[in-house]
Amino acid sequence: MPESIQHLPTEAPPTHEAAAAERTVAQRRRLRVAQGILLLFHVTGFLGLGFSEDPSFYLQFVPLNLLLTVGLLLAFQTERSPTFWWFCLVTMAVGFFVEVVGIRTGLLFGFYQYGPTLGTKWLGVPLMIGVNWLMLVYTTGVLARYLPIPDFLRAVVATLLMVGLDACLEPVAVRYDFWQWRFDVIPLQNFKGWFAVSLILQVFFNRTSFEKRNALAPFVFMLQLLFFFGLSLIR
């Protein structure tokens, strides 16, 4: 065999550190793509709802936007164990049925009814409401995990984040017929009820054993906050 062939250089196998670096780069790339998709949808929705003469075209995509956001959010959950899916199902079910009780009794949040914007209803409540509760509980719960404090205090912080977001959301929701309040007045009871239910679900979040890290969660929360706060300032 010729000398030159015998001593051809061979490619060294990638080291553990190199492989880890490649995974990190790939994860960052995925994160940027997901952030770009969400930003595109929310900016389009913001401009359409805020500045279009007829926002009804954009309102029909509200359920799709919510599903897309939650789908991408769950895709970045680091570990999707059966316990995690149990948390998701319970949170959606609790969120949905407290709204059923809410619209039928007025005891939890005050007297209100849902409009057509959030899509298909069952028992007078849009099915997307359970998905929305999951998104908010999960996102704020993950954010609160960054704080070096006991779990109950984390639950309180996450609950306050939820109530704060709801305060930004309410004027927009009423304007675009997500729901309507009796006498067109958002009662203080709504925020008290939100705090109580959210705190229970946040405690459940902290006590359910699954990996609570998600690189997309901070971006989703800030995007939602800016989206609804920005719309509340228009018109």
From TrEMBL:
Keyword Transmembrane listed: yes
* Residues that span the membrane, as ranges: 33-51, 57-76, 83-103, 123-143, 155-174, 216-234
Keywords of the record, alphabetical order, are:
Membrane, Transmembrane, Transmembrane helix
Q: Could you tell me which InterPro entries the record lists for this protein? A: CruF-like
Entries under Pfam families matching the protein: Caroten_synth (PF04240)
Annotated protein name in UniProt = Carotenoid biosynthesis protein
From which organism does this entry originate? Hymenobacter sediminicola
